[in-house]
Amino acid sequence: MTIEQLDVIDIVTINDAANEVRLFISDHLPWDVDEGEHLLLLQSKLNLYLHVIESGQLYEQCPRSIGRDVIIEIAPIFPLSAQAQRLFVLCQGVVRNAGFDLRIWNGFAEDDRTSAPIDGQPEGIPHVKH
What we know:
This protein is α/β, with parallel strands linked by helices. It is built from three helices and five strands. Strands 4-3-2-1-5 form a five-stranded mixed beta sheet. Strand 1 (11-15) and strand 2 (20-27) form a beta hairpin.
């Protein structure tokens, strides 16, 4: 699952030690090819993730996420372009105002070693109800 699939949460992990649930956006696209379309995809994917969280679908389909800090992480293969960095900062403010966090995934940091994918992605998370 990737940024191009706008009806799917790409990856969900639970980090018990940090009391977090992380929703990853898997971004494999380069920024030097059709940057405008890439920016729209990223914005649409972020909107989808916010919808899944705010509508309660995340908690219905993944009860272990209840009561945890929710973090959306963009996992890009390529460094963000200047435009993408500006979009990230704007979106980060919106996500934080909604009570969640938005980050750029920086690989497996020390605290990520305790995160684990949810066994068999919860029903309903991959394909969002509209």
